[in-house]
Specification:
This protein has a single domain (6-212), classed as Lipocalin (Beta Barrel). 8% of the residues lie in helices and 50% in strands. The protein is built from three helices and twelve strands. It has a ten-stranded antiparallel β-barrel with strand order 1-2-3-4-5-6-7-9-10-11. Strand 2 and strand 3 form a beta hairpin. The chain is globular, with a radius of gyration of 17 Å.
């Protein structure tokens, strides 16, 4: 079995010991023995989505399905489902499905994240077809959060790789931390284009818990509201 956060732990190396103890413990845990290497967490985004709304679908022919979000809302319940494994060469890989439960519609973002064998670096293949590939640098913040920032982006079409540089690049900054008061993980992600500004963002909290079919609210019973 593969640890929940094996890809991150391998990238961070000794620096992983600087993670908040709760985050480190959660990354080292293995999945439910009854469902090997599968895991899930539920939470609420205080804000999530894209300000471009339905215009985002114009990029679908290029990036493929499983990547674009066409809503922007506050208090959005969400679920993260992950499958941790190893490639035939032994690299840790984490497949993730993010389920955004917008009012009246559920949308999904999928990716597969790989350890690279190089200190601090992971590779992320975004969308159902993995057409957008990101090289991301992992580090630990002063308060023990995991931070990921984009180093390089490219489009993949079969064997063709097209680097996205300069005004065509997308810079992602993600911080995955710990809320001491409420005893839960926090998440803050922003993807920014030099030309278009913020193209996707989400921030909120989540907890790992057994699947019980119950929805998670933000404490006020709010199930989601469009902006």
């Amino acid at each position: 079995m593969t640890a929940r956060g094996a890809a991150f732990l391998e990238a961070l190396g000794e620096e992983a010991e600087r993670l908040h103890p709760e985050i480190l413990a959660q990354m080292r845990v293995h999945a439910d023995p009854g469902r090997p290497d599968l895991d899930s967490a539920d939470g609420v985004f205080t804000v999530a989505g894209s300000r471009f709304g339905r215009l985002s679908v114009l990029a679908r022919p290029v990036v493929g399905p499983g990547l674009l979000v066409t809503r922007l809302a506050r208090h959005v319940p969400f679920r993260i489902e992950t499958a941790s494994a190893r490639t035939s060469s032994g690299r840790a890989v984490l497949a993730t499905v993010r389920e955004f439960r917008f009012p009246g519609a559920t949308q999904y973002v999928r990716d597969r994240l790989f350890a690279t064998g190089h200190p601090g670096l992971v590779q992320n293949a975004l969308g159902d077809r993995g057409r957008v590939e990101m090289l991301e640098h992992c580090s630990v913040t002063s308060d023990g959060a995991l931070r990921m920032r984009t180093r390089a982006v490219r489009l993949r079409f079969g064997r063709l790789r097209i680097p996205l540089r300069g005004p065509l690049r997308v810079d992602v900054d993600l911080v995955d931390g710990w809320d001491e008061v409420h005893g839960r993980r926090t998440i803050d992600m922003r993807a920014v284009s030099p030309l278009a500004g913020t193209v996707l963002e989400y921030r909120g909290w989540y907890r790992y818990a057994p699947r019980n079919g119950h929805a998670v609210t933000d404490g006020d019973g709010v199930a989601g509201s469009d902006q």
